[in-house]
Amino acid sequence: MIIVVGSINLDLIANVDRLPAPGETVRGSGFTTAPGGKGANQALAAARAGAKVRMVGAVGKDNFATEALALLRDGKIDLSGVGETFASTGTALIMVADDGENVIAVVPGANGSVVTGDLSKAFMKKGDVVLLQQEIPLQTVDAALDAAREAGAVTVLNTAPFRAEAAAFLGKADHVVANETEFDLYGEALSLSGRDRPARMRDYAGKTGRTIVVTLGGDGVLAATPADLLMVPALNITPVDTVGAGDTFCGYFAAGLSSGLPLDQALARAAAAGSLACLKPGAQPAIPLAKEVDAALQKPAS
């Protein structure tokens, strides 16, 4: 079982020719809504990878909640751990440019009410994989890491969005997944040594005894364990929309670990899934099915 403790949003997406500069207004070419939130995105990705998934989080008592949960229900995810609050359902305001780049503003809403007491709904046990992000209160994330360790579960912590105070508990996670910017910022906060990023990753893995995974966009994924450094390439694609690619990676990575894949294979499968997620607009609607990822992995490299 994969247990996701995290955020649930409704994404409000505007398509623009290019992203605006500060103070500038640009004309949009389209508008859509889609279920989102890093927690929900990763839960759906894990489910589409073939894993059994339980979601712990919160939504508001509003019209956005139904749409925010729609694809999770369709994916047969256990939503018994999702509560309702009087705060609004979380929203993400997203602008996507023609080149696939995006900017995002997140309004937490109900996600801010996911507290440590809600972890009783997770029913963690030995052998589970607990998947976490940083769009809910950090004290809940910290407590979830402790609860998972006590239960004998494996933890995966995605450091998005970057929050400096999380540096205090990163070392509790069995696997940390960060993008380049996030890792570099945490590297400074943790005073990691090394002349380049791979060296600092090795330093982190050596000091904590854990695994650090850094996603590099089109350049693939780099991972450091206390014993090894692994590089996995991304698929060669032309991106349409990069929203949700990182979440897809995390969900598929957790599913790979849950199914017993070796680290290198779990990373390769997750990297392929993240690449495929860039070929369609939106976050959850773009998450590929397992059969699509399998097909992509079987194609010879071009």
Automatic annotation (TrEMBL):
<feature type="binding site">
    <location>
        <position position="282"/>
    </location>
    <ligand>
        <name>K(+)</name>
    </ligand>
</feature>
<dbReference type="InterPro" id="IPR011877">
    <property type="entry name" value="Ribokinase"/>
</dbReference>
<dbReference type="GO" id="GO:0004747">
    <property type="term" value="F:ribokinase activity"/>
</dbReference>
<feature type="binding site">
    <location>
        <begin position="215"/>
        <end position="220"/>
    </location>
    <ligand>
        <name>ATP</name>
    </ligand>
</feature>
<keyword id="KW-0479">Metal-binding</keyword>
<feature type="binding site">
    <location>
        <begin position="9"/>
        <end position="11"/>
    </location>
    <ligand>
        <name>substrate</name>
    </ligand>
</feature>
<feature type="binding site">
    <location>
        <position position="280"/>
    </location>
    <ligand>
        <name>K(+)</name>
    </ligand>
</feature>
<feature type="binding site">
    <location>
        <position position="277"/>
    </location>
    <ligand>
        <name>K(+)</name>
    </ligand>
</feature>
<keyword id="KW-0547">Nucleotide-binding</keyword>
<keyword id="KW-0963">Cytoplasm</keyword>
<feature type="binding site">
    <location>
        <position position="135"/>
    </location>
    <ligand>
        <name>substrate</name>
    </ligand>
</feature>
<keyword id="KW-0119">Carbohydrate metabolism</keyword>
<comment type="subunit">
    <text>Homodimer.</text>
</comment>
<feature type="binding site">
    <location>
        <position position="243"/>
    </location>
    <ligand>
        <name>K(+)</name>
    </ligand>
</feature>
<feature type="binding site">
    <location>
        <begin position="246"/>
        <end position="247"/>
    </location>
    <ligand>
        <name>ATP</name>
    </ligand>
</feature>
<feature type="binding site">
    <location>
        <begin position="37"/>
        <end position="41"/>
    </location>
    <ligand>
        <name>substrate</name>
    </ligand>
</feature>
<protein>
    <recommendedName>
        <fullName>Ribokinase</fullName>
        <ecNumber>2.7.1.15</ecNumber>
    </recommendedName>
</protein>
<feature type="domain" description="Carbohydrate kinase PfkB">
    <location>
        <begin position="2"/>
        <end position="288"/>
    </location>
</feature>
<feature type="binding site">
    <location>
        <position position="179"/>
    </location>
    <ligand>
        <name>ATP</name>
    </ligand>
</feature>
<keyword id="KW-0630">Potassium</keyword>
<comment type="similarity">
    <text>Belongs to the carbohydrate kinase PfkB family. Ribokinase subfamily.</text>
</comment>
<feature type="binding site">
    <location>
        <position position="241"/>
    </location>
    <ligand>
        <name>K(+)</name>
    </ligand>
</feature>
<comment type="pathway">
    <text>Carbohydrate metabolism; D-ribose degradation; D-ribose 5-phosphate from beta-D-ribopyranose: step 2/2.</text>
</comment>
<dbReference type="InterPro" id="IPR029056">
    <property type="entry name" value="Ribokinase-like"/>
</dbReference>
<feature type="active site" description="Proton acceptor">
    <location>
        <position position="247"/>
    </location>
</feature>
<dbReference type="InterPro" id="IPR002139">
    <property type="entry name" value="Ribo/fructo_kinase"/>
</dbReference>
<keyword id="KW-0067">ATP-binding</keyword>
<keyword id="KW-0460">Magnesium</keyword>
<comment type="function">
    <text>Catalyzes the phosphorylation of ribose at O-5 in a reaction requiring ATP and magnesium. The resulting D-ribose-5-phosphate can then be used either for sythesis of nucleotides, histidine, and tryptophan, or as a component of the pentose phosphate pathway.</text>
</comment>
<dbReference type="InterPro" id="IPR011611">
    <property type="entry name" value="PfkB_dom"/>
</dbReference>
<feature type="binding site">
    <location>
        <position position="247"/>
    </location>
    <ligand>
        <name>substrate</name>
    </ligand>
</feature>
<keyword id="KW-0808">Transferase</keyword>
<dbReference type="Pfam" id="PF00294">
    <property type="entry name" value="PfkB"/>
</dbReference>
<keyword id="KW-0418">Kinase</keyword>
